[in-house]
């Protein structure tokens, strides 16, 4: 099958959405399918990338590390038409997503959508939430998603949101999988972990607590920091390591200073991708109070690394942490410190048998299989509910790739 992904977010931008798209692309290609990505330009992108079409874009309002397509859509449509795509999968509700809708309509093929982002959690980025209201989000999302053939929901929370928005197309809960081999790393030795902790000023006697995410307000890291003094009352050897970059770092650093926690809390900034597994493995516990997640890749990464979680709960996490040896959830922000202290006192061990079971459940392979099964069902659904128009004879893919390269030269980054 020839599949077109349409997204405003892709590498070299670092995000859970970009990671999930790349994971799915790789899994589908392993099964012999062809996946082409239509996305935004990026100043850090390579000059030529195989099977990627980039359209001129600008940074998103009040969210400068994300971009949105502003032109080049006709060029992208022409490429999509040349490729004779058989299915469109949109991963954004904005520029590239609207293009995907147009392409699907003109080619008369199914359009599948994944709802990645809970926009109601991000309204503060636009005029401090004073212009765009939740009701605006509801009407816009309902209009966009209902014009798709089917929608992938990474968690039950997304299904509940779609129903609240009055979306009435086929839905399927498919949690995003991860490439577990990137976290089950036999090359990581105990000495490497000791060296990393030493670099952080953390000894083997310290309790290393890890927060790893985009450092943004909606990730709720401030809850962890605010309640850390209580954690220290029970565990004076506790140390909090906050990994990631984002617009909320300065405010968090001020909070750390205000609480006089500089000796116990440190910020590393963003770390290289191949070093992320080291941080998970070096930590004793992974913590999060985020309530904005739809797919929660960091939780799965922590478990794949063998690190137990103490996190604010939702339907997805209740299913993920289905054995207390994996970790525990808490219901409200104010419950973090008590939940953490009680869990550590229990001294539960995450054994290899349980970890192996969980690795299968969160694997990229399972994710890819479930997505493709949904594709097949939606192709049949589309053919039963829309006029079926036979595809014209397909052109050789290599000729199309040459044309992509030549046309890209005419589009400014």
UniProtKB/TrEMBL annotation:
Limits of the Glycosyl transferase family domain: 196-344
CDD domains: GT4_UGDG-like
Signal peptide location: none
Pfam families: Glyco_transf_4, Glycos_transf_1
Transmembrane region(s): none
Occurrences of domain Glycosyltransferase subfamily 4-like N-terminal (ranges): 14-181
PANTHER family linked to this entry: SULFOQUINOVOSYL TRANSFERASE SQD2
Name of the molecule in the record: Glycosyltransferase family 4 protein
Taxonomic placement: Bacteria, Bacillati, Bacillota, Bacilli, Lactobacillales
């Amino acid at each position: 099958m020839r599949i077109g992904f349409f997204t405003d977010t892709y590498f070299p931008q670092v995000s859970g959405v970009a990671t999930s798209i790349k994971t799915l692309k790789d899994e589908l290609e392993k099964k012999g399918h062809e996946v082409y990505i239509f996305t935004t330009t990026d100043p850090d992108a390579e000059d030529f990338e195989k099977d990627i079409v980039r359209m001129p874009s600008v940074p998103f309002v009040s969210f400068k590390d994300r971009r949105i397509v502003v032109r080049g859509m006709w060029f992208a449509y022409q490429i999509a038409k040349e490729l004779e795509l058989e299915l469109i999968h949109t991963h954004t509700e904005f520029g590239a997503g609207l293009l995907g809708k147009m392409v699907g309509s003109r080619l008369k093929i199914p359009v599948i959508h994944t709802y990645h982002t809970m926009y109601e959690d991000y309204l503060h980025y636009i005029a401090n939430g004073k212009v765009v209201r939740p009701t605006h989000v509801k009407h816009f999302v309902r209009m966009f998603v209902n014009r798709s053939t089917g929608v992938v929901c990474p968690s039950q929370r997304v299904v509940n949101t779609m129903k609240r928005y009055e979306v009435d197309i086929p839905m399927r809960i498919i949690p995003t999988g991860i490439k577990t081999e990137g976290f089950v790393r036999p090359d990581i030795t105990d000495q490497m972990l000791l060296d990393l902790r030493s670099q952080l000023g953390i000894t083997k006697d310290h309790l290393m607590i890890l927060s790893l995410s985009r450092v943004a307000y909606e990730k709720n890291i401030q809850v962890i920091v605010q309640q850390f003094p209580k954690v220290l009352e029970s565990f004076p050897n506790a140390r909090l390591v906050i990994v990631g970059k984002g617009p909320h770092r300065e405010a968090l650093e001020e909070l750390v200073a205000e609480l006089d926690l500089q000796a116990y809390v440190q910020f590393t900034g963003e770390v290289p991708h191949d070093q992320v597994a080291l941080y998970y493995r070096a930590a004793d516990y992974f913590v999060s109070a985020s309530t904005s997640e739809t797919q929660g890749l960091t939780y799965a990464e922590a478990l794949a690394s063998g690190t137990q979680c103490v996190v604010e709960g939702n339907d997805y996490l209740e299913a993920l942490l289905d054995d207390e040896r994996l970790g525990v959830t808490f219901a409200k922000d104010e419950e973090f410190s008590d939940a953490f202290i009680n869990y550590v006192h229990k001294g539960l061990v995450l054994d290899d048998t349980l970890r192996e079971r969980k690795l299968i459940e969160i694997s990229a392979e399972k994710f890819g299989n479930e997505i493709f099964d949904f594709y097949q069902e939606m192709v049949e659904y589309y053919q039963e509910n829309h006029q079926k128009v036979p595809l014209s004879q397909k052109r050789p893919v290599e000729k199309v790739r040459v044309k992509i390269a030549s046309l890209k030269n005419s589009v400014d980054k």
